[in-house]
Amino acid sequence: MFQKVKTLFLNLAVYGMGDVATHLVSFLLLPVFTRFLDPQSYGIWQLLLTASLIAKILFRWGVDASFMRFFYECEDEGARQRLASTIFFFLLGANGVILLVALLLAPVLIAVIHAQSMTATGIPVSGSFSTSNPVM
Predict the structure, then answer these.
(1) How far apart are the C-alpha atoms of 37 and 27, rounded to whole Å?
(2) Are 34 and 42 in contact (CB under 8 A)?
(3) pTM for the full model?
(4) Residue 31: inside a domain, yes or no?
């Protein structure tokens, strides 16, 4: 029993450190982004990061946590392989359909987002990355 708890805390520490490391790298890159991106481009960058975070949550479907739970309840290696392949093909199919629908609706979504941003701020949400700040 104690060995399982010890292993659990070790795994939590490893995965926790991975999560902390990605946030730390993001934080350390903040001066780089603010130096080389104008405010509009930085805002677009943050919108893209937010969209990717939401997509990551939606495309996982909570299956990653359930996989870890059921993986160890499987009685043999064959059951574990069936579990992994079932989850893989489910995610591939479901996310493939979502991706296809999103690609088909992309022009409409872009027009709606662009129209809303123009009415809300008067500033178009388009542009490219800029190196308007001089490099020292």
Answers:
(1) 15
(2) yes
(3) 0.51
(4) no
Q: Which of 136, 116, 132, 134 is nearest to 42 (CA)?
A: 132
Task: Let me know if residue 11 belongs to a domain.
Answer: no
Q: How far apart are CA 82 and CA 74, in angstroms?
A: 10
Q: Is the pLDDT of residue 127 over 70?
A: no
Is residue 35 a part of any domain in this protein? no
Residue 94: which domain range?
61-121
Tens of pLDDT along 102-121?
899 988 888 887 776 655 55
Tell me how many domains the chain contains.
1
- pLDDT confidence tier of residue 44, bands split at 50, 70 and 90: confident
């479901």: which residue's tokens? 94
